[in-house]
UniProtKB/TrEMBL annotation, chain A:
UniProt key word Transmembrane helix: yes
Location(s), subcellular: Endoplasmic reticulum membrane
Membrane-spanning residues: 51-72
Gene assigned in the entry: SPTLC3
Species annotation: Scleropages formosus (Asian bonytongue)
Domain Aminotransferase class I/classII large: 154-510
InterPro entries linked to this entry: Aminotrans_II_pyridoxalP_BS, Aminotransferase_I/II_large, AON_synthase_class-II, PyrdxlP-dep_Trfase, PyrdxlP-dep_Trfase_major, PyrdxlP-dep_Trfase_small
The name this protein goes by in its record: serine C-palmitoyltransferase
Keywords: Acyltransferase, Endoplasmic reticulum, Lipid metabolism, Membrane, Pyridoxal phosphate, Sphingolipid metabolism, Transferase, Transmembrane, Transmembrane helix
Predominant place of localization: endoplasmic reticulum
Gene Ontology biological process terms in this record: ceramide biosynthetic process; sphingosine biosynthetic process
GO molecular function: pyridoxal phosphate binding; serine C-palmitoyltransferase activity
TrEMBL record, chain B:
Membrane-traversing stretches: 12-27, 33-53
InterPro entries in the cross-refs: Ser_palmitoyltrfase_ssu-like (IPR024512), SPT_small_subunit (IPR051900)
Organism domain of life: Eukaryota
GO term, biological process aspect, one: ceramide biosynthetic process
Homology family: Belongs to the SPTSS family. SPTSSA subfamily.
Pathway assigned in UniProt: Lipid metabolism; sphingolipid metabolism; Sphingolipid metabolism
Cellular localisation: Endoplasmic reticulum membrane
GO molecular function: serine C-palmitoyltransferase activity
Gene Ontology CC: one annotated term: serine palmitoyltransferase complex
Membrane topology value: Multi-pass membrane protein
Protein's organism: Scleropages formosus (Asian bonytongue)
Keywords associated with the record: Endoplasmic reticulum, Lipid metabolism, Membrane, Sphingolipid metabolism, Transferase, Transmembrane, Transmembrane helix
Pfam family, any one: SPT_ssu-like
Origin organism lineage: Eukaryota, Metazoa, Chordata, Craniata, Vertebrata
Gene responsible for this protein: SPTSSA
Name of this protein: Serine palmitoyltransferase small subunit A-like
């Protein structure tokens, strides 16, 4: 990989925590005028291009028309001219407080149902780079489905979180997992604190700690529960949580359950964060003005809906200046970024001990299930005793733990092969290639150049359904996301690049995207070709 | 320029119209309702223009004293 001397200015030199530039990939000279308060050359590698104004107007027009028809259909259902397929109150309850009139139910009945066939498609094989789908048709406009019995084979999978290709059923690689099943069975039948603390958990936690460069780690059976059950153990009333605008639901749920005060800063915006920190330190708690017991900054490594990478050096500098704690959720970035797959701390060349709580999941890059929290030994020992997940949730299943152990050893190279590091490099190459080609074709892509999550903006509600169906006809499975998960005008298709994708598969996808982009009219980008360098 | 190429181009424009106005998501009878409403409103506008344009143009020309 090409490495250049860091030619960014002195201002950004001050912001870098431990000043190590060993693993950092530097861009060329920095630009002026970034409005996020960031002087780092990394900001050049992100792009969130805005579409022309007519696109927003047409999107609102489309939503307006469908909403009007939604009201019309609701009227027909109320009058009785049309059968209502969804839940309704009983006749005796019609005078009670209405249950199904809020916006969410309206949206589900009248917009989501019309294009529902693009989600929850039944899969009948391994979710590898190619998979098989069961063919499913609807006779009454998506109210009910029936399976025709046919299987669609070898559909290219651009939606599964399979970044390093560990969703595989190669017998040789899975032998340890089979042995673990034969030895331990599948169920643990207890919580970690009671009888569920197996030696395989111990081994896994030591391995996770050494992988991340932390002192100690603890693993949990479910990634979502790791966030939602452990944040309440770390903060409580009287503490302040500063959470990014686009944080995942598990972080928001954990923050709300804890009872701490939550303040939201603009996505990846360091000026907004600093302003909140200053106000918090100066003002203290809301009415009593006592100092906050703890200030916890909660961010993610890669935000999966935007594809953007957190500005970690700036956040670490801010946290040191204002004496706050940092909770980093590396669900999508562990294993997927960094020169050897160690996550965003390695990507920016920072010391992992700068981050107080390192959290991540094993679902995405390790082909298993579960989550971990790593950090100082006192922190992890405290969590072993006080976490809700340790006390009440079943411990991780042994075959799953063995899969994580073998995947981690593969990435670290401890099994004596170079398969792991090859996969990490292949993922980086695939990501760069895919993103560069998409930008050349003229699509609007969000996010950083290193993120394997690629959101492609579709904007209009009609195109969302048409895109997903047309891609399935071409035997490519994509995930499209619409309103509740994204802002209403920014519906998108989200591609997850995997190291198991070959160049041919990516080329086939790009070719189909090119055709569909012209046929559906999706090439909104007004930028000239590529601004970013390509190493390979 | 054969007739089939022109037909293909027209049907692509109709497809774009369906996608942009989100009629693509609606059932066929809803599309018919919307299209008839649109065509009737547009037809009424054209008819009104046809009936009243000459009078309006004469009045404007009178006002600017181009015509006496």
């Amino acid at each position: 990989m090409a490495r250049r001397a860091d030619v960014s200015s002195k201002g950004s030199q001050d912001l870098h925590g431990s000043g190590s530039s060993r693993n950092r990939l530097c861009g060329s000279c920095q630009e002026n005028g970034k409005s996020n308060g960031v002087a780092h050359s990394w900001s050049k590698r992100e792009s969130f291009e805005q579409a022309p104004m007519y696109v927003a107007v047409l999107t609102y027009l489309g939503f307006g028309i469908v909403t009007l028809f939604g009201y019309f259909r609701d009227f027909l259902r109320a009058v009785g001219l049309e059968k209502c397929h969804l839940a309704q109150e009983r006749d005796e309850q019609k005078d009670f407080v209405p249950l199904y009139q809020d916006f969410e139910n309206f949206y589900t009945r009248n917009l989501y149902m019309r294009v529902r066939d693009n989600w929850n498609r039944p899969i009948c094989s391994l979710p590898g780079p190619e998979f098989d789908l069961m063919e499913r048709v609807s006779d009454d406009y998506n109210w009910t489905f029936r399976l025709t019995g046919r299987t669609i084979h070898n559909v290219i999978n651009m939606g599964s979180y399979n970044y390093l290709g560990f969703a595989e059923n190669n017998e040789k690689f899975l032998q340890p997992v089979a042995n673990a099943t034969k030895e331990y069975g599948i169920g643990v039948c207890s919580t970690r604190q009671e009888m569920g603390n197996l030696d395989i958990h111990q081994e896994l936690e030591e391995l996770v700690a050494s992988f991340l460069g932390a002192e100690s780690a603890m693993t949990f059976g479910m990634g979502f529960a790791t966030n939602s059950m452990n944040i309440p153990a770390l903060v409580s009333r009287g503490c302040l949580i500063l959470s990014d605008e686009l944080n995942h639901t598990s972080l928001i749920l954990g923050a709300r359950l804890s009872g701490a005060t939550i303040r939201v800063f603009k996505h990846n915006n360091m000026q907004s964060l600093e302003k909140l920190l200053k106000e918090a330190i100066m003002g203290g708690q809301p009415r009593t003005h006592r100092p906050w017991r703890k200030i916890l900054i909660v961010v993610e490594g890669i935000y999966s809906m935007e594809g953007s990478i957190v500005r970690l050096p700036e956040i670490v500098a801010l946290k040191k200046k204002y004496k706050a704690y940092l909770y980093l959720d590396e669900a999508h970035s562990i294993g997927a970024v960094g020169a050897t797959g160690r996550g965003v701390t390695q990507l920016f060349g920072l010391d992992p001990s700068d981050v107080d709580v390192l959290m991540g999941t094993f679902t995405k890059s390790f082909g298993a299930a579960g989550g971990y929290i790593a950090g100082k030994k006192e922190l992890v020992d405290y969590l072993r005793a006080h976490s809700h997940s340790a006390a009440y949730a079943t411990a991780m299943s042994p075959p799953v733990a063995r899969q994580i152990i073998r995947a981690m050893k593969c990435i670290m190279g401890l099994d004596g092969l170079t398969v792991g590091i090859q996969r990490v490099r292949q993922l980086a190459e695939n990501t760069r290639y895919f993103r560069r080609r998409l930008q050349e074709l003229g699509f609007i892509i969000y996010g950083s150049q290193d993120s394997p999550v690629v959101p492609l903006l579709l904007y209009m509600p009609g195109k969302v359904g048409a895109f997903s169906r047309a891609m399935l006809e071409r035997k490519i499975g994509v995930v499209v996301v619409g309103f509740p998960a994204t802002p209403i005008t920014e519906a998108r298709a989200r591609f997850c690049v995997s190291s198991a994708h070959t160049r041919d598969m990516l080329d086939k996808v790009l070719c189909s995207l090119d055709e569909l982009g012209d046929y559906l009219g999706l090439k909104f980008s007004r930028r000239k070709c590529t601004q970013f360098e390509l190493d390979s | 320029m054969t007739l089939s190429a022109a037909w293909k181009q027209l049907s692509w424009f109709y497809y774009q119209y369906l996608l942009v106005t989100a009629l693509y998501m609606l059932e066929p009878w809803e599309r018919t309702v919307f299209n008839s409403l649109l065509i009737s409103v547009a037809g009424m506008a054209v008819y009104t223009g046809y009936v009243f344009m000459p009078q309006h143009i004469m009045a404007i020309l009178h006002y600017f004293e181009v015509l006496q």
